[in-house]
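User: Predict the complex with iron/sulfur cluster.
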Amino acid sequence: MKVTTDKINSNLISEVEEISGQKVSACFQCAKCTGGCPVVWAMDIYPHQVLRYAQLGLADELLNSKTLWICAACQTCDSRCPRGVDIPKVIEALRLILLRAKGGNYLHPNDLPAKVLENAPQQGLVSAFRKYAK
Ligand code: SF4
Ligand code: SF4
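Assistant: Here is the predicted structure with iron/sulfur cluster placed in the model:
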């Protein structure tokens, strides 16, 4: 990918570090996180790339990425990270930035078909709204 200065949001790394409490700048791109992620096959930006994009301030690419909504917060990646970065917290921070910028919820109950609301397990619905709504 070609990186141009007009694509860079230089506040992104500090915003992500403040919300997540994680040192994004500590990542040295070993990719051990990506090597252990069980859902990496479904991601368009891999976990180690999430860190790199955040370091580079590539906000548009990150905030439009499927990866933010694919991560299952299983914590496999952070147990492998030699720099102690809690990657799910970084991903959660990016979701929050996106939700705040949209000024609303990513998922609203009215967006779901009645069949899903009636038949989906309650625990699944509560988890989904915790993750995808303010
Ligand atoms: S927490 Fe997310 S990024 Fe990390 S291994 Fe699990 S699914 Fe992958
Ligand atoms: S395992 Fe840690 S240091 Fe290595 S790429 Fe992933 S976040 Fe960066």
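The mean pLDDT is 89.
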